[in-house]
Amino acid sequence: MDSYFTSLRYPFGIDAARGQAEQETDYSAHVEQLIMQVLLTGPGERINRPDFGCGVRRLVFAPGGEIAATLAQTTVYQALNRWLGNVISVSEVSVQASDARLDIRVGYVVKARGQRRYLNLQVTP
């Protein structure tokens, strides 16, 4: 089923053997890459979509520890539902704040396949 799917890989790279942009043929990996784009893009970074993204990196040094974690949890949940609501159904978001790091765990279902998946991400400045 995945052999009929092709997209550009994120982060962008060149396949040296073929001399072309690297491609992603696994749909589940593509969806994970979409989630990473939403989480790691800060609002204002995209020219034609200034409101795109979540901007969790700016929350790494936010004061308050658990308050920052709760804010990040809400921000992640809202951004994923806004930008990827047609691709995934977010079932859980948990965020733990430590010194200079946020540990984010996202549970989601890939709507097209009905697959339950998890993404664990450590965000540092």
From TrEMBL:
Gene3D superfamilies (UniProt xref): 3.10.450.40
Name of one Pfam family that matches: GPW_gp25
Residue ranges of domain IraD/Gp25-like in the record: 27-113
Matches recorded under InterPro entries: IraD/Gp25-like (IPR007048)
Name of this protein: IraD/Gp25-like domain-containing protein
Species name: Andreprevotia lacus DSM 23236
